[in-house]
Amino acid sequence: MRITKLLPSQRIQGRWLCHLEDGTILRVTENEVACFGLYSGMELTEELREQLAEAVRRGEVKEKALRLLSGRPMSRKELVDKLTARPRDKEKEPIPEELAEEAADRLEELGYLNDAEYARTVARHYAAKGYGERKLRDELWKRGVPREYWDQALEEVQDPTDAMDAFIRRKLMGRTADRETLGKLSAALARRGYRWEDIRAALSRYGETFEDESI
């Protein structure tokens, strides 16, 4: 198979269009042009063409991974799951997990993908919104963050006391807290993911001291 034309892309810097005599156009990078020694008129053996096509495929997967990460930070598992998801266009083949994992490895090496930092980002985000530890753990689990990063991320978030006090004051709006009101506050704080021992300590600052979880 002969390369009939090798032209730089007019739209994407660093991209080259490799035209083959069967009408196929391979979108290659400068790195692939250099590594394979591509030039117009070059004859590609079937083996070399397969190697070039595989290199192009790997490059496309890495580019897609970068686009996904530019949209929002995510865990390695989220990235791999998105890369390997079945395309909406049923005629397209899904990305093999091997290529997705390879792309994730490379992005980790470059520092674009970091589960430990992502765990801290998630924990800070939900703590700042007034959620408790249980909610933070739920969010880390849903995002596929490895458990080995959870404790450190949770240790770095601010003490829940201020957030809980702000929530209680906002709900009370200056009113005296009777037992029924505190019971409702307890349930609301529990739904926000706070631990019972933290809820009990917070409510004791506004009313009675509770010895059980029956409120």
UniProtKB/TrEMBL annotation:
Among the entry's GO cellular component annotations, what is one? cytoplasm
User: Which keywords appear in this protein's UniProt record, sorted alphabetically?
Assistant: Cytoplasm
Q: Where is this gene product found?
A: Cytoplasm
Could you tell me which InterPro entries the record lists for this protein? RecX_HTH_2nd, Regulatory_RecX, WH-like_DNA-bd_sf
The record's annotation in Pfam families points to: RecX_HTH2 (PF02631)
* Superkingdom assignment: Bacteria
> Which GO annotations describe the biological process of this protein?
regulation of DNA repair
Q: Does the record carry Cytoplasm as a key word?
A: yes
- Residue ranges annotated for the RecX second three-helical domain, each copy included: 114-154
This molecule's function is given as: Modulates RecA activity.
Q: Which PANTHER family match?
A: REGULATORY PROTEIN RECX FAMILY PROTEIN
Q: What is this protein called?
A: Regulatory protein RecX
Specify the species.
Pseudoflavonifractor capillosus ATCC 29799
